Amino acid sequence: METKIIKLDINNVDMDKLRYAAGVIRDGGLVAFPTETVYGLGANGLDGSAVEKIYLAKGRPSDNPLILHVAAMKAAEPLISEIPADAFKLMERFWPGPLTLVLKKSEIIPRAVTAGLDTVAVRIPSHPVALALIREAGVPVAAPSANVSGRPSPTRASHVIEDLYSKVDVIIDCGSSKVGLESTVLDMTVVPPMVLRPGGITISQLNEVIKGIRNDPALEQHQKHILKPKSPGMKYRHYSPKAKMVIIEGDLKKVSDETNRMALEYVQQGRIVGILATEQTRYLYKDGMVISLGDRENPGELAAKLFDALREFDGKQVDVIIAEAVDDWGIGTAVMNRMRKAAGYNIVKV
Ligand code: TXA
Ligand code: MG
User: Fold this and answer.
1) How far is the centre of ligand 2, averaged over its atoms, from the C-alpha of 62 (Å)?
2) What angle do CA 314, 298, 196 make, to 5 degrees?
3) Which residues lie at CB < 5 A from ion ligand 2?
4) Which residue in 158, 178, 173, 146 sits closest to 37, CA to CA?
5) In the 3-class helix/strand/coil scheme, how is the chain assigned residue by residue?
6) Are strands 119-123 and 244-249 parallel, antiparallel or unpaired?
7) Closest CA to 339 of 278, 254, 264
8) Distance 222 CA to ligand 1 centre (A)
9) pLDDT averaged over consecutive 10-residue blocks of the chain (350 residues)?
10) How far is the CA of 338 from the centre of ligand 1 (A)?
11) Which residue lies with its CA nearest to atom 6 of ligand 1?
12) Is-above-0.90 flag for pTM?
């Protein structure tokens, strides 16, 4: 298939080009587009056969449901059969933004969107191009992250091109994603509501609006496959670089010592080593290719850079990635969730 790449300026969107892309969605095609979290791969969410093309292009298992993206509250209402009062409060506070709510679905949603579940995931993204695209398409847009299934999510158009060129109709190039990690997925069909995937909105932000939100117990597991996750997507191998990855966790001095020791050992074996460091530690490493995710005290920076760094290591043909764990607070919780999955829960405690 021929893929058209459309470059858009976030500050001065060419509406003709945007309307073209919206038309492709309305007519049943696939369009990769920027959101504030990661790039999404969009299709007309009311057209079952268009939605099926998403699974094919990504190589996504058919039992992993998609998020419907809308541009306004009134466009969300027809998709949902029942909106609890607490869900309204969260929508008012966090939409548009990186919060996805799982709610009881209405009858109009094709089976391919929800993978047969009786619930549907919905969000209003805050990226102006995403909003304009959805509005112009005039339909809810079903969109997973625009990567090949299992690979790190794309935070730049170049990542999407790497994974999906010739598999989709249009790729919109509009710079890099601000948040860098996917939205928080919150199940509002259970009491109390449950976080199925940590993401752009933290659990403490959510708890400021409604009390008692808890994490899916499957998220607390830091080892392999003990509990069954409630969000179908969380059970698959995810966010994976091609390299083998290991996380070093503990006191920062011990972490950097162990990282140096391990890096030297791998280098002596003739392996290409990548080290995922932070501004506080990057100068400590002698062997391997070092990428800093940013300032440890600013987990937002780490989140924005993580997937890009994993892909950069792949581009450099790295065999082993040694990653420092970061603090589990704020969006750092989501960073660690993605890192553990990328490493296949291969964690060394020091
Ligand atoms: O930030 C994001 O959420 C990005 C952008 C493009 O919006 N999208 C994204 O989609 O990350 P995806 O498909 O990569 O991840 C959606 C997650 C999956 O873990 C899926 O299993 C879960 O949401 N999900 C979707 N519908 C669900 C439902 N009805 N019940 C439980 N989990 C659901
Ligand atoms: Mg994804």
Assistant:
1) 13
2) 70
3) 145
4) 178
5) CCCEEEECCCCCCCHHHHHHHHHHHHCCCCEEECCCCCCEEEEECCCHHHHHHHHHHHCCCCCCCCEEECCCHHHHHHHEEECCHHHHHHHHHHCCCCEEEEEEECCCCCHHHHCCCCEEEEECCCCHHHHHHHHHHCCCEECCECCCCCCCCCCCHHHHHHHHCCCCCEEEECCCCCCCCCCEEEECCCCCCEEEECCCCCHHHHHHHCCCCEECHHHHCCCCCCCCCCCHHHHCCCCCCCCEEEEEECCHHHHHHHHHHHHHHHHHCCCCEEEEECCCCHHHCCCCEEEECCCCCCHHHHHHHHHHHHHHHHHCCCCEEEEECCCCCCCHHHHHHHHHHHCCCCEEEC
6) unpaired
7) 278
8) 21
9) 97 97 98 98 98 98 97 98 96 98 98 97 98 98 97 98 98 98 98 96 96 91 59 69 94 97 97 98 96 98 98 96 96 96 94
10) 14
11) 40
12) yes
Residue 226 confidence (pLDDT): 45
Ligand 1: atom nearest CA of 146 is 6
Task: Please choose from 185, 230, 234, 239 the residue to mutate so as to test ligand 1's pocket, defined by most ligand atoms within 8 A of CB.
Answer: 185
Ligand nearest to the CA of 143: 1
**256 touches 284 (CB < 8 A):** yes
- Nearest ligand, CA 40: 1
Q: What are phi and psi of 231, to 5 degrees?
A: -95, 115
Asked if 156 and 38 touch (Cβ cutoff 8 Å), the reply is no
Q: For ligand 1, pick from 58, 182, 216 the residue to mutate: most ligand atoms within 8 Å of CB.
A: 182
Ligand minimally distant from the alpha carbon of residue 187: 1
pLDDT at res. 240: 83
